[in-house]
Amino acid sequence: MRAPLIAANWKMHMTREPAGRLAGDIVRGLAGLDGVQVVLCPPATALDVVARVLAGTPILLGAQTMHWETQGAYTGELSPPMLVDAGCRAVILGHSERRRYFGETDDGVGKKVRAALAHRLVPIACVGERLEEREAGSTDAVVVRQVRAAVAGSDAEALSSLVVAYEPVWAIGTGRHATGREADRVAALIRRTLAESAGPVAGRVRILYGGSVTPGNIGEFLEQPEIDGALVGGASLDAQAFIAIARAACRAGSP
Ligand code: PEP
Hints:
Elements: E1 5-9, H1 16-29, E2 37-41, H2 47-54, E3 60-63, H3 80-85, E4 90-93, H4 96-102, H5 106-118, E5 122-127, H6 131-135, H7 139-151, E6 163-166, H8 180-198, E7 206-210, H9 218-222, E8 229-232, H10 239-253
Parallel strand pairs: 1-2, 1-8, 2-3, 3-4, 4-5, 5-6, 6-7, 7-8
């Protein structure tokens, strides 16, 4: 049984004070909620503030990206030990905005996943096709290529903590979303691809859907057998919307 997971990607939004307030509202709104793992990924400048708000709660702190090296001459980058030191337990890797605007490659995402696992950070590896790839009928080929690269060289047993977020790029921040059935079909493909390198451990990997998730559509994804939660962008900036999404996942995850 895979525990449902709902992760918030706040992207490049919020300075420290509003970030702390939003985290506090979410902590209060989810107090006592059991059966769903929640991760908040604020911008790097707000990690310490949000870490303080989350201390003593079951909500995990995550980062939005990181470098694969432990230290070195990589101006502007943050390393795995730096994230651990800041209180992070998880990190989003290979988000489509990182791939599109900052040149992240499949190979780089693989290095980052290996580095995250080595430092006991939960990697949330993002995969997904662009609109033109979908229209060309290459969704499956793109997703399989990205998943294989993300797990290349990783120890099979260590991959049990991996999280893969299937985020069709055309659905991110657009208000358009995949249907639950289509997302589930791709999630099943992701799991089969993971099984090539991780064997039975693939059954323990959590697969999220991401792309314009709201309280109104989360139910459609949570009812799918291969989908274990969501990576939420825009709606995670609204405490009440995010709380409603996490509560829905808790209900879906209870026996
Ligand atoms: C994201 O950025 O990972 C995302 C899913 O964004 P949104 O929910 O706004 O589509």
